[in-house]
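Researcher: Hi, I'm a grad student and pretty new to this. My advisor asked me to get structures for two proteins we've been looking at. I'm not sure of the right format, so I'll just paste the first sequence and hope you can take it from there.
Model: That works fine. Here's the first sequence with its C-alpha cells right after it:
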Amino acid sequence: MTTPIAATQNSDRNTKVAKKPTRQKQLYKMLTRKSGVTIAQLQQTFGWQPHTARAAISAQRKAGRVVDRAETDKGSIYRIVEMQGNQ
C-alpha cells in the first residue's frame, strides 16, 4: 500500500528525469543542420548500417520533407530543404 508521502516522492522523481530525444528527432536535427549529414556520420551516431541510414532518409522523404543530396569529396551530403511556401 502506498502512502501519500511515498506517492509524492515518486511523482517528484519522475518529473525530474529528462526524456532523451527519439532517433527520428535526432535524425531530423542532423538533416536540418546547415552542413547537412553524411551516411558515415549517421552510421557513427546511431550505429546503423549504410542501408539503414539511407532508409531513414527515405522515410523523411515519404513523410513529405524535401531532402537534398549534394556530392562532395567526402561523399554525399544530405540535408532537409525548407521550401519558400512553407515559411
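Researcher: Oh nice, that was easy. Here's the second one.
Model: And its structure:
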Amino acid sequence: MEDFGYPNAERILQEKKIKLIRGDGHLLLAECGNSSQRIKIWTRDGDFCFQANAKTAFVTMEVPKVFALETASRPISADLTAGAQKETVNVTKEGRQDGYQSVGEGSKGAETTLVELRVTG
C-alpha cells in the first residue's frame, strides 16, 4: 500500500537540512532556476525550490525559519506555524508582489515553520 512517504527523505534531510515527510509525487524538490513551474521557499538558512508536474500537488514538511514564498506561475497555498499559531497563506502570480509573499519574520511576525505546501491550480 502506498504511504506517500517522500522519496529519499532521509538523504535530503542530511544533505540539505530540509525535512520532507510525505507528498503525492507531483511536487518535487528541484534546482532553483527560471522554470515557469518553480516554487521557491526562502529561509534564513538558505533557499530551495520545488517543481510542480501537475495542476494540483502537495508535500508535507517541517522547514523552520521561513520568511518568504515565491511562485513563478502556479498558485500555491502554504500552511505555516509560529508557536501554537497556524496560518494559511495563498500566493499567486497575480497576487501580492507578483508571486512573492513575505511570511513570519519576513512580515515582522514570529519565526515561522512551513508544514505543508500545495499547488492549487
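Researcher: Is there anything I should tell my advisor about the second?
Model: You could mention this: DSSP finds one helix and ten strands in the chain.
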